[in-house]
Amino acid sequence: MTRAVSAIWRFLGFLLLWWVMAGGDPAYWYYGLGAAAVATALSVRVLPPARRRGAERPERARRARPWEIPALVVWFLWSALRGGVDVARRAFAPSMPIAPHVTRVRIGVRHPAGRRLALWMVNLMPGSLVVDEGEGWAALHVLSDDLDTEAAWRELTRRISRIVGD
User: Fold this and answer.
1) Range of the domain at 20
2) For residue 133, which of 24, 42, 79, 138 is within the disulfide window of CB 3.0 to 4.6 Å?
3) Nearest CA among 70, 73, 65, 72 for reference residue 165
4) The whole model's pTM is what?
5) What is the mean pLDDT of residues 74-79?
6) Alpha helix (H) residue ranges in the chain
């Protein structure tokens, strides 16, 4: 599918989503056009259209899996909720360990937008914060060793890599 055809289909899909969310009310259709145009531009940038079947593809290239986005959102919200409860318990229970430190993790997402998304999302997870990054690594400030932030980071980057086709 060409980039233009893909953009048109995405635009129509976003416009349909706007129409459904607006309850079919045509009063603010121009907001829907603008929102659909911005969403289309971002989606084409973040998840470019797949190449035609006959086109040559790099040996290791994988297809993007945008249908896995809802699972990422659910996983992220659940992880953030669990992390928030854990941080609150640590704040109010002196027996809970708090040992802040910085740990360095490998960034497994090669896609630039996927990499940025992973770094933003880990900042929203309670108990962790990106304090530095380099080529292929990130330094995370972690609230405690027993949070297993590295396992959560690996799962987050695995999910994002699958979505962007890394």
Assistant:
1) 3-46
2) 138
3) 65
4) 0.61
5) 92
6) 3-21, 29-46, 69-92, 112-124, 149-164
